[in-house]
Every structure is written in structure tokens, then in C-alpha cells.
Amino acid sequence: MASRTVAARAQCGCGCAKLQNRRVWYDKMYARILSGSTAKYNMLLDGRKKQLLAPLLDDSSIHDVLEIGIGSGANLPYYATFRKDINLTGVDPNTHMQPYLTAACSAAGFPPAH
């Protein structure tokens, strides 16, 4: 039985676009594992995350944020807790993260994406 694959564009170190084949089952499994470990991950790294995000969260002139590789939304609680006025745009190459990210957005109080 052949496994289905999806083509994804990625940048290699030299800057050229390489076509990579990723297995669908792997993306699904990775999304599920990542979403299941987000709460523990945030608990373990809470202080460090607050330190890393402090410049962004403390600067009230920043209203638009682009998070590349948003995954299952591990940083959403930080944006929602400290800044109610952020317009967050997140992108992730793994389309199987979408249901987990949608649930995390709802839990953090972000409106649904359009």
C-alpha cells in the first residue's frame, strides 16, 4: 500500500526553494503529539517564554504580529493574557495543525479566522 504524500516548499540554507515530500500520516501524527504536549511545554518554559516575548508584549505600538510556524498555538495564551489589542496572523506548513490551532484560539479568546 503506497502512502500519500504532499508536496511542500521549503527553503534550504542556500536560499533556493527545494521540493520536499512529506508523508500525510507523519504530519497528522506530529500535529496530534504537539498539541497534546503544549500545556506541559508551556508550564515548563513559562518563565523563559515570558522573557522572550516581553519586548513584543510590552511595546504598545505593536499591533500586528506574524507568527511563522504557529503549530498548535503554544504562544496564544501569552498574547491573549498580556495584550488584548494584538492582531495575530499565524502560518504553518502542516495543514493538520488547523483543528488544534482553532481549538487553542477559542480557548485563548481569539476570534475565529476568516
Give a structural overview.
With 114 residues, the chain is of the alpha+beta class. Helices cover 46% and strands 21% of the residues. The chain contains 3 helices and 4 strands. The strands form 2 sheets. The protein has a two-stranded antiparallel sheet with strand order 1-2. A hairpin with a 5-residue loop joins strand 1 and strand 2 (17-23). 14% of the residues are buried.
Summarize the structure.
This protein has 3 helices and 4 strands. The chain has helices at residues 24-58, 76-82, 98-108, and strands at residues 5-11, 17-23, 64-68, 87-91.
**Unreliable sequence segments:** 1-19
Strand order of the largest sheet: 1-2
Proportion in β-strands: 15-25%
Structural class: alpha+beta
Computed over alpha carbons, the radius of gyration is 16 Å
Number of helices: 3
Give descriptors for this structure.
114 residues; two-stranded parallel ribbon; disordered N terminus; 21% strand; 46% helix; globular; single chain; alpha+beta
Outline the secondary-structure elements.
Blueprint: E1 5-11, E2 17-23, H1 24-58, E3 64-68, H2 76-82, E4 87-91, H3 98-108
Parallel strand pairs: 3-4
Antiparallel strand pairs: 1-2
